[in-house]
């Protein structure tokens, strides 16, 4: 009988950084806001950790959450579905961004 060794799925901190596209309008932002809020709320109800907010320039923002790599990719893809025409978004593992580790 063959045994398969399974690696436990480890929760990590992830950072989603988003920036408004040059052609984004206020109405575009108003249109996607409810969907983004719903996505964040659904993540919170799953017991995941989410902090989010804009930077001072009001053109970029960041969300920090925890999950496995698969969950992070799923969250990122769901986010892209509702925001890709308005925002450029990038997903990073927390440890891959040394400057954030000082916070």
Which characteristics define this entry?
single chain; 103 residues; alpha+beta; Alpha-Beta Plaits; 4-stranded antiparallel sheet
Question: Topology of this protein?
Answer:
Layout lengths: L11 E9 L5 H20 L4 E5 L5 E8 L1 H15 L3 E7 L10
Antiparallel strand pairs: 1-3, 1-4, 2-3
Helix pairs in contact: 1-2
Description:
This protein has 103 residues and is an alpha+beta fold. It has a single domain (12-102), classed as Alpha-Beta Plaits (2-Layer Sandwich), CATH 3.30.70.1060. It has 2 helices and 4 strands; from the N terminus they run βαββαβ. It has a 4-stranded antiparallel β-sheet, covered by helices on one side. Helix 1 (26-45) runs antiparallel to helix 2 (69-83). 14% of the residues are buried.
Through-space gap between termini: 49 Å
Q: Give the ordered list of helices and strands.
A: EHEEHE
In the predicted model, the low-confidence regions spanning at least 5 consecutive residues are: none
* Strand-pairing-aware structural class: alpha+beta
Strand content: 25-35%
How many strand elements? 4
| Total domain count | 1
Determine the CATH topology.
Alpha-Beta Plaits
Radius of gyration: 16 Å
Mean pLDDT: 86
């Amino acid at each position: 009988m063959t045994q398969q060794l399974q690696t436990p799925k480890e929760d990590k901190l992830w950072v989603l950084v988003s920036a408004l596209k040059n052609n984004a309008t206020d109405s575009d932002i108003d249109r996607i806001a409810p969907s983004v809020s719903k996505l964040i709320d659904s993540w919170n109800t799953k017991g995941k950790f989410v902090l989010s907010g804009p930077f001072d320039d009001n053109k970029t923002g960041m969300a920090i959450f925890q999950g496995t790599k698969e969950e992070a990719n799923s969250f990122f893809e769901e986010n892209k579905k509702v925001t890709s025409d308005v925002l450029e978004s990038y997903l990073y593992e927390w440890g891959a961004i040394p400057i954030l580790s000082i916070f």
